[in-house]
Design brief:
Structural class: mainly alpha
Mean pLDDT: 81
Number of helices: 3
Helix content: 55-70%
Shape: globular
Number of strands: 0
């Protein structure tokens, strides 16, 4: 399920990036591993309660992007 969530999130991100010029240099963007780790921490922060992996992934990406 996590792979499907990552794939869907990546598709959404790719479509968004295709429609907007990138303002962040590629080197400053978080890696998939960093995003996955942050998404997992988001899951742990809610004590493993039900949630949406897609939302966790996108939130993780936002958190890491803002933190740069």
């Amino acid at each position: 399920m996590a792979k499907a969530a990552r794939k869907k999130a990546q598709q959404v991100i790719s479509e968004t990036e295709a429609n907007q010029p990138s303002q962040m240099p590629a080197a400053a963007r978080p890696t998939e591993e960093e995003i996955a780790a942050r998404a997992y921490h988001i899951y742990l922060e809610r004590d493993g309660a039900e949630g949406n992996p897609d939302d966790d992934w996108l939130q993780a990406e936002r958190d890491l992007t803002r933190g740069s």
